[in-house]
Amino acid sequence: MNANAKAPASDPSLVYPSPLKEFWHAFSRNKGAVGGLLFMLVIVFCALFAPWVAPHDPSEQFRDFLLTPPLWLEGGNSQFLLGTDELGRDLLSRLMHGARLSLMIGLTSVLISMIPGIFLGLLAGFSPTRLGPVIMRLMDIMLALPSLLLAVAIVAILGPGLINTVIAIAIVSLPAYVRLTRAAVMGELNRDYVTASRLAGAGTLRLMFVTVLPNCMAPLIVQATLSFSSAILDAAALGFLGLGVQPPTPEWGTMLASARDYIERAWWVVSLPGLTILLSVLAINLMGDGLRDALDPKLKNAA
């Protein structure tokens, strides 16, 4: 080969996209996921800026406008776009402030359950003969009870309230992370890169958190997204039963509980919070499907 020969110019068509662009390209192919993302951006915006965006204080009572219907119905008032509840409080303002609480419960409970769940799953995967059976049998016992029943039992022991609701939902979500992490770890332990790391002298902790865990994050991120929607549902269910966030704090489940006696007289008092829960959970689940498609190499290659 001639040493003076010039190296061929790089072909612009061989430039690879950044990981973020590649992820967005795979995610945006799922139109439902994009729609869910847009809806959740609106909800998050309303939740973050509720004190400035909401037209009224969520606890302010307008005694002259009890059970006022939404603006588009007969008897509606332009001052209350979505109507008022049985105490004359603006529903739109309460939904916006309730979004703050519902999203905070979902996010906090996911973090509280995911971190110990990943740690226990790593221990179970790296110690399949000692710690693994003990951890997995404990998770099996927790899974033997319905999730809502277990959450109700935990809140009944700890007492109703915001913090206890978060703790109960986090405990209920824990087994899913443990089982998923253990399954992912067991699938990675026999791979060549793990064997190479062992031969290079990597310790157990380095193998856990540096070598194996990053390659298990894709399914865990999807699980966290789906657990987020489940946490919103569980928080709403506990609030509906009177075991979650206590009135007059605006929370979607609590709003449903306080309005159930007026479902025949004023359908909007029940329907609007329920519809908000439905659309939020649906949007998050659609986003989870999009994340699964974007993070799974097999699905990306098949598309």
Automatic annotation (TrEMBL):
Superkingdom per UniProt: Bacteria
Residue stretches spanning the membrane: 33-54, 101-126, 228-245, 266-287
Domain (ABC transmembrane type-1): residue spans on this chain: 99-288
Annotated source species: Pseudomonas nitroreducens
UniProt keywords, alphabetically: Cell inner membrane, Cell membrane, Membrane, Peptide transport, Protein transport, Transmembrane, Transmembrane helix, Transport
GO cellular component, one term: plasma membrane
Database matches in Pfam families: BPD_transp_1, OppC_N
Compartment(s) where it occurs, according to its Swiss-Prot or TrEMBL record: Cell inner membrane; Cell membrane
Predominant localisation class: membrane
Name used for this protein in its record: ABC transporter permease subunit
Classification lineage: Bacteria, Pseudomonadati, Pseudomonadota, Gammaproteobacteria, Pseudomonadales
Membrane topology: Multi-pass membrane protein
InterPro entries per the UniProt record, alphabetical: BP-dependent_transpt_permease, MetI-like, MetI-like_sf, OppC_N
An annotated GO BP: protein transport
A Gene Ontology molecular function term of the record: dipeptide transmembrane transporter activity
Protein family (similarity comment): Belongs to the binding-protein-dependent transport system permease family. OppBC subfamily.
